[in-house]
Specification:
432 residues, alpha+beta, Serine Threonine Protein Phosphatase 5, Tetratricopeptide repeat, Protein Transport Mog1p, Chain A, 3 domains, three-stranded antiparallel sheet, 18% strand
């Protein structure tokens, strides 16, 4: 799954562990550095202590917390797991290990740890808030609301719980309530770009586009690399007719992907007719996009992309891969149109098991001439640190033939490329 940035509370503990064998100066420096938020220096001091052979619960715990704040979640997990070997069942330790699991996408392990933290301390407001975060991600909105209500009953000014309730209200389409929660977060001095981003999204849903733009701008002032805020502001500018500002944002957004030269106003794109070399199909494509064709014994494949790649095996962010396949009954024992589509869907799902994230957004029936099938809209993330891609997946079948296409672009740019892809799909003609 793709992990969003949450405002989750890390609970600290103070241990009465004897450290007589440890360099007291290193220990003091490590603790001082930690509370001064110099986590790199804290890690350095704690690591020197551990290198002396003096392994204690406190040093492992605080080094684990330092790694957690440095977003080095695997090392945080190692230290937290080693701290558990001392036999201390601390609710704080379970809560913070749960956060480390959450940030690497291990939702079940994170959920189990938050449960254990609550079992050990039924008044642990932060653990309820963190568990609610997972409920929200899983779509378990009623359970999330119960946890957040519990957290806020324990502490009505718990900014983490208020923020999560704002996210929950947004998912429940209670946009006005969401805005009230985000307002309160800001009044409680939560200075984080995401609170403005999320409030901007709520204003957008209420069609208050100018207020949405103002919040996206505040978000970008705090985090200039927030591509989602930049993309959403471009869409909001479109809504109020400020096309020039929308295009400026899209060009700025494109710089993050190195494809700024291909972001031009849709109305300025020149579409030309392309027919494959076997004369099996034709589509209208932007005149400046590259074309790579490959023919095998029972298939033909065409890659069409605006990116400056050297071959059809190079990685690309934006592109279309079209494939014409015949002899399906002989090669795959798929004889009818339904069997062919089912075979294709199974192949896609099998490949998706190797991806870091793969999720359906929507699907619809699709017909073109004698061909019938489906068009899916999906989110794909190939590995943990790769960008999230949004795709059209089109599959059409007739008798012994399968035609399919993948249309992909970074999810934050998909609203722009959707317009290009829709024009291409609308122009598709199958001859064979």
């Amino acid at each position: 799954m793709k992990i969003k940035i949450f405002f989750l509370t890390i609970a600290l503990i103070y241990c009465n562990v004897s450290l007589y064998a440890i360099d007291e100066k290193l220990k003091a420096n490590g603790i001082t550095s930690f509370f001064k938020r110099n986590y790199t220096k804290a890690v350095d001091n704690f690591t020197k202590i551990l290198a002396q052979g003096d392994t204690t619960y406190e040093v492992l715990y605080y080094r684990g917390l330092s790694y957690l704040y440095l977003n080095d979640f695997e090392k945080a997990l190692t230290d937290f797991n080693n701290a558990f070997r001392f036999g201390k069942e601390s609710s704080d330790l379970y809560n913070n290990r749960g956060l480390a699991y959450l940030y690497i996408g291990e939702l079940k392990l994170a959920f189990d740890d938050f449960n254990k933290a609550i079992e050990l301390d039924s008044n642990f407001a932060e653990a309820y808030t963190n568990r609610a975060t997972i409920h929200i991600e899983l779509g378990e909105l009623d359970e999330a609301l119960q946890d957040l209500n519990k957290a806020l009953k324990l502490n009505s000014d718990n900014v983490s719980a208020i923020y999560e309730r704002g996210r929950l209200n947004y998912k429940m389409k209670k946009y006005t309530d969401a805005i009230k929660d985000f307002d309160k977060c800001i009044k409680l001095n939560l200075k984080n770009s995401k609170v403005y981003y999320n409030r901007g999204n709520a204003y957008f849903k209420l069609e208050q586009y100018q207020k949405a733009i103002e919040d996206y701008t505040k978000c970008l002032a705090l985090d200039s690399t927030d591509t989602e805020a930049l993309n959403n502001r471009a869409v909001a500018y479109d809504k109020i007719g400020k096309k020039e500002l929308a295009n400026q944002d899209r060009k700025r957004l494109a710089k993050f992907f190195g494809n700024q030269s291909i972001i031009i106003p849709i109305e300025e794109i020149n579409f030309i007719k392309f027919t494959d070399s076997l004369n099996y199909f034709s589509v209208n494509i932007p005149s400046n996009w590259k074309i790579f064709q490959k023919i095998g014994t029972d298939f033909e494949e065409v890659l069409i992309t605006p990116e400056n790649i050297k071959s059809d095996t190079d990685f690309y962010y934006v592109g279309i891969r079209l494939s014409f396949n015949w002899n399906m009954s002989k090669n795959y024992n798929a004889k009818t149109s339904g069997e062919i589509i089912e075979f294709w869907r199974g192949s896609v799902e099998k490949n998706a098991n190797n991806y870091y994230n793969y999720r359906y957004l929507q699907q619809k029936l699709f017909n073109r001439g004698e061909y019938s099938g489906n068009m899916f809209e999906t989110l794909v993330q190939y590995w943990q640190n790769s960008p999230l891609l949004q795709c059209y997946e089109l599959a059409l079948a007739k008798e012994d033939i399968l035609f399919f296409g993948f249309f992909q672009a970074p999810s934050v740019q998909f609203n722009y490329f959707r317009q290009v892809f829709d024009k291409i799909i609308e122009s598709l003609v199958l001859f064979k």
